[in-house]
């Protein structure tokens, strides 16, 4: 009796564990990923506002102080299907884009890899900058990816 219960338990364990591993490369094999959005706008202007969300998670509307780092962590899903997007408002300007859609390049379609466990964005007067690795220089740089519309 005890032995068969043990067998059933062991059988269930075998069924469950490969599933767990395939669920998330990050978080099971590696730590969680993070997205950082840093407000680098001048402190004397109007406040920056943004609203970030994924399909399942609404991070709400937020207005960071100058130099503040707004960040969150998450585990990547099967097939790397996690996608976070944000709306930004400043003066009468607006912008909207995906801030995370790929575990290697932060957003899909970028050739520059990011080997870090986080994606770092800076919101500046002249646009939105993402930290990316430059193979030639072997160093990270903040690169302009989007202008304010
Ligand atoms: C990430 O956000 C938390 C508040 O949620 C803040 O305390 C922390 O300093 C931020 N991380 C960094 C690296 O600034
Ligand atoms: C990497 O750095 C080199 C040397 O500064 C520069 O010429 C090149 O454009 C950079 N590549 C990217 C993708 O930014």
Describe the 3D structure.
A five-stranded mixed β-sheet has the order 4-1-7-8-9, with no helix packed on it. It has a four-stranded antiparallel β-sheet with strand order 3-2-5-6, with no helix packed on it. The longest helix has 22 residues. The protein is of the alpha+beta class. Helices cover 18% and strands 41% of the residues. The chain has one domain: Immunoglobulin-like, CATH 2.60.40. One 2-acetamido-2-deoxy-beta-D-glucopyranose binds next to loops. This is S-protein homolog. InterPro entries: Self-incomp_S1. Keywords: Secreted, Self-incompatibility, Signal.
Residue-averaged pLDDT, rounded? 85
CA-CA gap between termini: 70 Å
Count of individual beta strands = 9
Molecular shape: globular
Helix content: 10-25%
Q: Supply the number of structural domains.
A: 1
Q: Say which molecules are bound, naming each kind only once.
A: 2-acetamido-2-deoxy-beta-D-glucopyranose
Give the SSE string. HHEEEEEEEEE
Largest sheet: 5 strands, mixed
- Major beta sheet, strand line-up: 4-1-7-8-9
| Classification by helices and strands | alpha+beta
Q: What is the highest CATH level, the class?
A: Mainly Beta
Q: Which value, in Å, is the CA radius of gyration? A: 20 Å
How does CATH name the architecture? Sandwich
CATH topology: Immunoglobulin-like
Beta-strand percentage range = 35-45%
Give the low-pLDDT segments: 9-24
Please give the count of helices: 2
GO biological process, one term: rejection of self pollen
Pfam family, one: Self-incomp_S1
Signal peptide: 1-24
InterPro entries: Self-incomp_S1
């Amino acid at each position: 009796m005890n032995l068969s219960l043990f067998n059933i338990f062991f059988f269930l364990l075998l069924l469950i564990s490969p599933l767990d591993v395939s669920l998330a490369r990050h978080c099971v094999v590696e730590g969680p990923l993070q997205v950082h959005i840093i407000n680098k706008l001048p402190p004397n202007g109007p406040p920056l506002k943004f609203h970030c969300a994924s399909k399942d998670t609404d991070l709400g509307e937020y207005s960071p102080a100058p130099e503040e780092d707004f960040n969150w962590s998450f585990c990547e899903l099967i097939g790397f299907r996690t996608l976070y997007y944000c709306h930004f408002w400043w003066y009468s300007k607006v912008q909207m884009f995906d801030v995370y859609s790929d575990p290697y390049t932060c957003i899909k379609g970028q050739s520059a890899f990011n080997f870090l466990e986080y994606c770092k964005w800076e919101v500046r007067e002249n646009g939105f900058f993402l930290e990316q690795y430059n193979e030639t220089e072997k160093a990270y740089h903040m690169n302009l990816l989007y202008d304010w519309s």
